[in-house]
Write a structure and sequence with these properties.
Keywords: Cell inner membrane, Cell membrane, Membrane, Transmembrane, Transmembrane helix, Transport
Low-confidence stretches: none
Distance between the termini: 31 Å
Subcellular location: Cell inner membrane; Cell membrane
GO molecular function: ABC-type transporter activity
Shape: globular
InterPro entries: ABC2_TM, ABC2_TM_bact-type, ABC_2_transport
Protein name: Transport permease protein
Mean pLDDT: 83
Helix content: 55-70%
Order of helices and strands: HHHHHHHHHHHH
Number of helices: 12
Largest sheet: none
């Protein structure tokens, strides 16, 4: 028989053994979110493919043709879709994590379980969406005749990890803040609308000229630029940009974990 000791003094420690004990709960939450997400929808999981595809189409018309943004030798549709693939994973997961505690408030008030399970389980839904959206990306690569480099394929995993660290850290902080201040639900969509325009999703980082150093402050810049260079051959991989993105992602992740652990003892009272 397993015994769980609830100690409010353990603010920064991650008990992986406790997570293993509650692994079935993580699976249950993730499966519940998957079913609820596409329940009573006509298209079902096709929405995971349609969202980035339609966004790519709109961006191609307005930014690729009307605004005339230069994507070099890469056709603009696949250029922007590469950015959207990772951006949609980032923004969707960030939104899901930030609202996860409010969505599970009845459970938080009634029973004990590692609170981190709720926000982390919500990311699985968006990872499934990411995998489905890669089907369109693969089709675009075949259509335009692109063959990913071996290095680019290897770097997909590190880029996914950096994306996960970034949205998890920022999301955990927002989820904890959202318990006390519900302004997050209104501010976050506005924040994400602005953030996509300061992330190289619809244009290359070279567009800023001597101000390219600004992209080093955004962890998604290194991810998107690395994937374009590795999978589409837009140029040499900027290792310093990727390394900076990894460092910022790690800092965000641990900052989010620390803040979440420091405030989780008050969730049941405030929520």
């Amino acid at each position: 028989m397993n015994t769980i000791v609830i100690d409010s003094k353990r603010k920064f420690k991650l008990d992986f053994k406790e997570f293993w004990i509650y692994r079935e709960l993580l699976y249950f939450f993730a499966w519940r979110d998957l079913k609820v997400r596409y329940k009573q929808t006509v298209l079902g999981v096709l929405w995971a493919i349609l969202q980035p595809f339609v966004t790519m189409f709109v961006f191609t018309i307005f930014f690729g043709r009307v605004a005339g943004i230069n994507s070099g030798d890469i056709p603009y549709p696949i250029f922007v879709y590469t950015g959207l693939l990772f951006w949609t994973f980032f923004s969707g997961s960030l939104s899901g994590i930030s609202s996860s505690l409010l969505g599970g408030q009845n459970l938080i008030q009634k029973v004990y379980f590692p609170r981190l399970i709720l926000p982390l389980s919500s990311t699985i839904v968006y990872f499934v969406d990411f995998l489905l959206a890669t089907v369109i990306f693969a089709a675009l690569m075949v259509y335009y005749g692109f063959v990913p480099t071996f290095l680019g394929i290897i770097l997909v995993i590190p880029c996914l990890v950096i994306t996960f660290l970034s949205f998890s850290g920022l999301g955990l902080m927002l989820a904890a803040i959202n318990v006390k201040y519900r302004d997050v639900r209104y501010a976050l969509p506005f924040f994400l609308q602005l953030l996509i325009f300061i992330t190289p999703v619809i244009y290359p980082t070279s567009i800023l000229g001597r101000y390219q150093w600004l992209w080093y402050l955004n962890p998604m810049s290194g991810v998107i630029e690395t994937m374009r260079a590795g999978l589409l051959g837009t140029g040499a991989i900027n290792w310093s940009l990727l390394g900076t993105s990894a460092l910022i992602g790690i800092v965000l992740f641990f900052a989010g974990i620390i803040y979440f652990r420091r405030t989780e003892m008050f969730f049941a009272d405030l929520i």
